[in-house]
Amino acid sequence: MRALNVLISLLTVYSLSFAKEDNQKLENYLSDIKKQEFSYDYQKVEADSSKLRDSWIAPLVISYAYSKSNPNNNIQDTQKAAIVMDQPIFQSGGIYYGIKFAQASRTYSNFTLDVAKRKLIKDTIALLMQIKQTEFMKQKQDLQIKNAEINLEQKKEEYLNGQLDSGFLDSAIIQTNEANQALFDIAANEQKLISQFKSISDLDYQSAEIPTLRILNEDEFLKNNIVISQIKSQEERDRYNKNVTITKYLPKISLTAGYNWDKSENLYSSNTGTVYSSETDYYNYGVKASIPLDVNTFRDVESARVDYLKSRVVAIDKQRELKALFEQVMLNIKSFENKIELSKRNKELYEKLLEDTQQLFHAGYKTQYDVDTLNNSVEIQKLDTKIYEIDKQLELLSLYEKFKDEI
Predict the structure, then answer these.
(1) Residue 66 phi, psi (nearest 5)
(2) Does a structural domain hold residue 303?
(3) 321 lies in some domain
(4) What's the CA gap between 218 and 113, in Å, rounded?
(5) Concatenated DSSP letters for 117-159?
(6) Residue 258 is assigned to a structural domain of this protein
(7) What is the mean pLDDT of residues 90-98?
(8) pLDDT at residue 104 greater than cutoff 60
(9) Does 353 fall in a domain?
(10) In whole angstroms, how far apart are CA 210 and each of 12, 121, 202, 359?
(11) pLDDT tier at 163, thresholds 50, 70, 90
(12) How far apart are CA 230 and CA 219, in angstroms?
């Protein structure tokens, strides 16, 4: 843990400096159809939020009815029309909290979409990195196959010269077969990665560049964390929802108004055609006060209160979870850096051995097999370094996934 603290202290001099334009470039890794889907999702959030914000405004009800009947052979025509308004003007704070709840819900929904989009971007870039990494792994495996084949040729010669029994030759054959099989597996996995990448990106994986992610310190990661912002917005939403729930059971005052029109026509005799008609219209307005008495009032309020309390606990728990994630990523990066350093030392060792072996080869003490094997080993160590560098980038992606656009 002490070593981890030292590492984190050293890394605080760096930052993951994604400016907003950089993130827009990163969004280009997504296919146009995926970006369009998210665009519609954001538009829906705005529409739903506006609808929720104005939900306290009661609708103006306009009605019209027409009926015709013939009781006792007397034909009656009746028409009725009305315009009715029942608008709450006071809800013990419910209108204010309702508007605040709508705004908080919009913020939470937008953050939820941001998290989903960022995860998809992360998955897309991770696939591209893995494809690039697989290319290095294939090159490395080709070199290992060459070394296995060289070893097999050496074992064949030694076996035919009586210097080696068949067991060693069998082992060399098996080793060569396993190396070839591993290459088949790598190639199959590469095709799987390519297929997944094509399903979510329009870019050509062969020419697309991998973004270079730099280290960020813990304070920045937690301060600008999109997941924490999402959880906090949920906490605020649940707080206003608790207040809205309480006000549902408090006194409410409404302004009522209406205009009514009635018209009736009665044809008393179909023979004489005598018609009696009446038409009236009138308006009404007033004030109405009400308070609901519901046996589930306490349960409803308590449920909303528990949701709010839970969201506060979730925010604290998520902070701890993300802090642990950051520390784990830093440990993993340190591990890959150690592997990179080891690969570099091994490369230097193989280069020295190769230099000495080439001299012995020219002097007649070593074979071309020895030179080729060491030359391949040098290249393998170079590829290992590239593979581990991408592993570091993949680790950083797990942090970027949860990082805001703005810094």
Answers:
(1) -135, 135
(2) yes
(3) yes
(4) 24
(5) HHHHHHHHHHHHHHHHHHHHHHHHHHHHHHHHHHHHHHHHHHH
(6) no
(7) 91
(8) yes
(9) yes
(10) 24, 12, 15, 41
(11) confident
(12) 18
